[in-house]
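quick one before i forget lol
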Amino acid sequence: MAKPISEQADDLLWSIRGVNFGYNGTPVLRDVNLELRCGCCYGILGPNGSGKTTLLDLMGGLQSPQSGTVEFKNRPLDAWPKKQLARQLALVPQDFMVRFGYSVREVVEMGLHPHLHRFAAPSEQDQALVDEALEITGIAALADRPVTRLSGGEKQRVAVARALAQRPAALLLDEATSNLDIHHSLEILHLIRNRFEQQGMQVVAVMHDLNLASFFCDRLIFLKQGQVVCQGRTEETLTPETIEAVYGVEAEVTVSAFTNSRQVSFRLPVAP
């Protein structure tokens, strides 16, 4: 994919310094140091249990580091007022759950809340943003249906539509396409990439699929056992050596003329 031209390419978006975090005394992230800048789509990859979702939660302010610091736009995350931060960041979780019978439109409208004054109703312009989000995610025909009656893939597209209606400066995706088929996965990634390129919305995505990550991301961050193994441009980090070190499998990495991106084939190590 073409790289966006950004006047803010050198601006620091997240600064993560010496971060440690764990649950019930079990370390999950250990001494994580990262700088994420405007002008790139980032992918976070690694085996199950490597700390990917926890790192994303820390970046979104859903968790606080037990030691170290997380800054967003040169300001500690815990210093941001909640409503102000909600105008900046939107999160699409892996499993989007709504336990009440809100309609699809009502759920997508929830993305407007950070921008509305207390008790204010959405304006015509706000409703147009909701209509656009419903349309581009392919769920306009479901607008009046209760979310509780949707399939997992349909719910996931509702989550993406709500995040887009929120108009964030940065979008955090936690395996956002895991419940989608190939067509809808590519469709969602394309529309998010277009928002990044055309409107400057920054993107950080936790992903499992190495080939989708190669197609979608400019830079990759590989985690293993809570530590950063490597980080850098996709073409520099997506290598057989990295894949073997992180996942313990043998890999072949080629550049596909069909997708114009690096593609990975892998297998278990061959016994000597």
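fyi The chain has one domain: 12-267.
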